[in-house]
Amino acid sequence: MKKLLNILILSCLPCMLLAQVGKQEQDKVQKKDTTAKIIGAKVLKIGKPEKYKNSRQDYLNSIEEIRAERRDTNCDRKENKEWRTRLIAKYNESKDSEEKSFFIDALGRSSCPENMRFLEQVVLTDTCEHNRISAIQYMNGAQSKQSIPMLIKYSQKDLSPAEGSTLAATLIGMGESKHSLQLLQKYCFPTTLQNCSSCEYAYFTLGGDIAKTYFKKVLLTTNDETIRCRYAQRLAELGDSETSFPILKIFLNDEDEYGRSGALSGLAAIGTKECFDIIMDRYINDKSRIVRSRARDILEDTEVEAEVTEKKGEVIIKNNKKYKVDYEK
Q1: C-alpha angle with apex 101: 96 to 105, nearest 5 degrees?
Q2: So what's the pLDDT on residue 26?
Q3: How far apart are CA 247 and CA 232, in angstroms?
Q4: Are 63 and 5 in contact (CB under 8 A)?
Q5: How crowded is the C-beta side of 301, counted as CA atoms within 13 Å?
Q6: pLDDT of residue 271
């Protein structure tokens, strides 16, 4: 999963030339309405950042890349057939659900037709819900569209929110949105930690107003902070900054460093100057290495920063303001 433009003008003078940067050169920088930032012995010209790379289309492209990696072009090779036959036999012989899950993972990562028929068998007959959910997810990854009729029929059973939402997400991934929308209405309300990932994937894949409506509705009804942070980020990526920005700002003060890190990703998707000022501030001042690292990655991806460093006591000059970095390595 690797993935969700080219943006600004960026130049860096080598250390040996820095002493030659005189007042005339500095005046040129200011006339171009860029910011001169000194980090150690480097001068960076920072222009206006454009949109962050982590867009919905990048997200969908990353999913396609994963699917492409799993496409098996050697399905007919004798050794592959023998290997597959052995694993299926071991799965059928096993009485242990955890052991069975190993064989499902091994076969599910390959998109050979025989493997898809095996996954259908798992969905229809395995008594362990975790194994059935894994099989359904692998069918999505392989784009096993010949399995759509079976999955639609299976969806008529009384399923748990976790299994039902996974099934809906897989059908959407396969391009079958008409039936899956009914399943989403049934299994994504209420949204809990058990079904939020599948519901998030399904609605984010659909995009548009239907996705915005879903994410906003959940944000108004759930008290789960993990879901609120993730869904606010998705709304930002869908272009709804009016709803997402106030929520993301709240998570900037979250005690959980992963909550603060997720908030930065959402702010990057909004992409305004105010958002990037916040990200810069967190890169400089946040005490968490995880948050600083996320801020640095965003700034590098958008080319706002280049070759950023994290030396304790380093002084960064930005917009004529001096910041002293005072965190532990």
Answers
A1: 155
A2: 38
A3: 7
A4: no
A5: 20
A6: 87
